[in-house]
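hiii so um. not sure if this is the right channel but i have a protein structure encoded as tokens and i wanna go backwards to a sequence. like what aa goes where. can anyone help
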């Protein structure tokens, strides 16, 4: 029955682009997809390169359908990017979009970066942004997981959320704001959300400030 619901949800998404299909349950401790990419291979094919994709894609739905067909979750990378590992050894580079297109394996923030930067390139008016979701901490394979990243865009005065590693290919919305989405998403994930923030970048603000200062004339 669960598998049947997911197949129907996928068929609606691929046929209508922005179908609203809320999964009935989710594994609360993992950001990995609820269904394998092979279940939506009907959306496979398409652009042969990232440059061609940016010339071909016109809407967020185009990016989202590609993610639904191609994305594969990298659990080992997720553990290396966990709160506990970052505290010990620092952060790993987030995969840049061209490299992600060539090998669409990664974690939530890789998917979000790909979607945000791609949508900004093809449709700046959509006002693509990052949405950082902070859950109550969970432990997976001994590592602490807290943050989850998705992408947002605006249409007709409403907020839409996409590029979610938990359900790639799913478009959520319309919502009045990020808080309305968070209330809905907490029910789906079965986890308490303690904060949700829209951001222009996945990078921390202090890192952005340091980069700007380094570029200023006379900076050491």
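sure thing!! here u go:
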């Amino acid at each position: 029955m669960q598998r049947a619901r997911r197949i129907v949800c996928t068929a609606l998404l691929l046929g209508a682009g922005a179908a609203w299909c809320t999964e009935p349950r989710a594994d609360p401790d993992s950001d990995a997809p609820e269904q394998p990419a092979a279940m939506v291979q009907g959306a496979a094919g398409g652009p042969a390169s990232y440059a061609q994709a940016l010339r071909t894609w016109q809407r967020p739905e185009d990016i989202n359908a590609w993610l639904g067909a191609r994305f594969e979750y990298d659990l080992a990378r997720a553990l290396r990017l966990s709160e506990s590992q970052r505290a010990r050894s620092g952060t790993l580079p987030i995969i840049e979009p061209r490299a992600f297109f060539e090998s669409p394996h990664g974690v939530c923030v890789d998917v979000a970066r790909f979607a945000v930067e791609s949508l900004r390139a093809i449709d700046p008016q959509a006002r693509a942004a990052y949405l950082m979701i902070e859950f109550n901490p969970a432990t997976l394979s001994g590592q602490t997981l807290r943050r989850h990243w998705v992408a947002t865009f605006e249409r007709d005065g409403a907020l839409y959320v996409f590029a979610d590693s938990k359900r790639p290919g799913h478009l959520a919305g319309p919502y009045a704001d990020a808080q309305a989405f968070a209330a809905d998403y907490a029910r789906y994930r079965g986890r308490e959300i303690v904060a949700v923030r829209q951001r222009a970048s996945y990078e921390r603000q202090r890192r952005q400030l340091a980069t700007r200062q380094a570029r200023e004339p006379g900076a050491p």
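oh and The CA atoms of residues 178 and 196 lie 7 Å apart.
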